[in-house]
């Protein structure tokens, strides 16, 4: 089967072609990526970004929505007495849902690895508050310094305060039996 004509020919680089402009215009035509699900569901692809945001009651440009008065900048302003027309918000539920979502308390997703928890508990159980002894322990695989171990224990205390209190409370009867 013969080769396609012109495939083996050397391609010349066109120095006059502006590739940045081509790339930029292709990016501009793409639909905007919307992170918020409320906005995504209310978005109308047949309208412009400014029209969509105005219908939802959102500002396209925050500098225009809440301008800084010239008096604060140290200059006097001559006002024409004209007030900009009120925009009609056709989709107020978007802003309401976003405000409701923002008012919810943030869930703490702080967790420590099981290995770190076991390491800290082992160190406290065997050495109490003696960080120098902990640093010399054979289970200190990463050769943490006393300050590093203290920091890890404090992180454990902050992440799991109830669990730490219960653990310390369970250690006290053991120490009394030993004495």
From TrEMBL:
Keywords associated with the record: Nucleus
Gene Ontology cellular component annotations, sorted alphabetically: nucleolus
Cellular compartments annotated: Nucleus, Nucleolus
Highest taxon above the source species: Eukaryota
Main location: nucleus
GO biological process: ribosomal large subunit biogenesis
InterPro entries reported for this sequence: Ribosome_biogenesis_Nop16
Similarity section: Belongs to the NOP16 family.
Name under which the protein is recorded: Nucleolar protein 16
Origin species: Pomatostomus ruficeps
